[in-house]
Each structure stands twice: as structure tokens, then as C-alpha cells.
């Protein structure tokens, strides 16, 4: 049996992180079906924080405000082409990116929940990943403001975490620890964009291609 460890650096506001997660999920399902012994391998995924293009307004604003700020140097035609490409790739992995709703001043609290789910020995890797899934879905598809505590609680409970545990986590002050992790990836490791996938601590990938994921997992299995 092979143990495959995957570390993912991401931010919730990044649509490519949502797309990358879904593509990886599909690659893992295909790997388990096609690689000899793949269904018996253990695949552990851990999610790590990154702060991508923080909201400088200091409060929740419509997503369109930040979208227009980031793409202010692009023509309407260029913006339309970017959105069309994103939507096409998203749909290919079963994701629907919606552009309405609000975006909070940061994603720190959402990352706090994910950090605590990663550190809690009673939370499985699957539930840890499902929490990430529910929060990405809430932001990108359901157009919800994931800086709001009630939205975070709803997503965490939907992921399979008890409401009392979620409430305890929301009150737990680990923000500085999460900030330090995010700083490490940006300032020490020099990451400028996400997602970044690291397999077995040595094979790195920053795209969303299913076949590339399959090939890397095949390399890990051959190494083991």
C-alpha cells in the first residue's frame, strides 16, 4: 500500500483553487480505478492558507468592486475573454462560478476553521477536505460572504462537523498562527499565486490538469 501525501496552498477567493480541487478529486477517483492497487492506497490531503489579493476596503463589498479593481487595465473584450475561459474550464470539472455576492475584508476566519480542522486529531482528512469544499462552494457558487460567522458555521456543519465544535473553533484565537503560515508561503517560499499542490514533499504542480495529477501520483507510487 502506498501512502500519498498532498499539501495544498490556496485561498477561497481563487476560482482556480476551486477548479483545481475538483480536478484533483476526479484524478484521485480515476487513480483508484486504474492504477494497480490504487484503491488500497492512502491519500492524505492537507490544506494551507494563502491570502490572495486582500480586500483593501476593510469591510465586505460586492465581488464586482474587487473584480473591476483587479482588471482595471483590461479592456471589456479582454475581461470577457478571461471570464469565458474560466467558465469553460470550470464547467468541465462540474463547477459553476457565479460572480454575485459579497466578499469580506479577508478570508482569515475561513482559514482559521480549516487550520483547526487540520490540527484536530478527531477530524479525518476527508472531513477536512469537505470543509474546504463547502466553503469554496458557498463563496463561488452560492454567492455567500464567507467572512460572516453564520455562513462559516453553516458550511462547517454541512461538512460533517458538530455545531458545538464549530462554535468553539470560531471563538478560538489562532489567527496569528494562520497569519504566520500564510506569511511563510508568500515571503519565505515566494509563492505569488495559488493553488500550489505539493505531492510527497517533492513533486510540485500549480495547475488544474487532471492528467498531470495522475502522472504525479503515478511517480509517487513508483518511488514507493
TrEMBL record:
CDD domains the UniProt entry points to? DsbA_FrnE (cd03024)
Residue ranges occupied by any DSBA-like thioredoxin domain in the UniProt entry: 6-214
Which Pfam families would you find in this protein's record? DSBA (PF01323)
Q: Please give the Gene Ontology molecular function terms for this protein.
A: oxidoreductase activity
In terms of SUPFAM superfamilies, this protein maps to: Thioredoxin-like
Q: Output this protein's name.
A: DSBA-like thioredoxin domain-containing protein
Q: Which organism is it from?
A: Aspergillus tanneri
Amino acid at each position: 500500500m502506498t501512502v500519498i501525501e498532498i499539501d495544498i496552498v490556496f485561498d477561497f477567493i481563487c476560482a482556480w483553487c476551486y477548479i483545481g480541487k475538483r480536478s484533483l478529486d476526479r484524478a484521485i477517483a480515476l487513480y483508484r480505478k486504474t492504477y494497480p492497487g490504487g484503491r488500497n492506497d492512502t491519500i492524505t490531503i492537507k490544506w494551507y492558507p494563502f491570502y490572495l489579493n486582500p480586500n483593501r476596503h476593510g469591510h465586505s463589498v460586492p465581488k464586482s468592486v474587487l473584480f473591476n479593481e483587479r482588471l482595471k487595465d483590461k479592456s471589456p473584450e479582454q475581461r470577457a475573454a478571461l471570464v469565458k475561459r474560466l467558465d469553460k474550464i470550470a464547467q468541465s470539472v462540474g463547477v459553476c462560478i457565479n460572480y454575485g455576492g459579497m466578499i469580506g475584508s479577508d478570508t482569515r476566519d475561513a482559514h482559521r476553521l480549516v487550520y483547526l480542522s487540520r490540527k484536530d486529531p478527531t477530524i479525518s482528512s476527508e472531513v477536512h477536505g469537505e470543509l474546504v469544499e463547502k466553503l469554496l462552494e458557498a463563496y463561488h457558487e452560492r454567492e455567500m460572504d464567507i467572512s460572516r460567522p453564520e455562513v462559516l458555521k453553516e458550511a462547517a456543519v454541512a461538512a460533517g462537523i458538530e455545531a458545538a465544535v464549530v462554535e468553539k473553533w470560531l471563538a478560538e484565537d489562532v489567527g496569528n498562527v494562520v497569519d504566520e503560515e500564510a506569511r511563510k508561503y508568500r515571503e519565505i517560499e515566494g509563492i505569488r499565486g495559488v493553488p500550489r499542490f505539493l505531492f510527497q514533499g517533492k513533486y510540485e504542480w500549480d495547475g488544474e490538469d487532471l492528467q498531470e495529477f495522475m502522472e504525479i501520483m503515478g511517480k509517487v507510487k513508483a518511488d514507493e
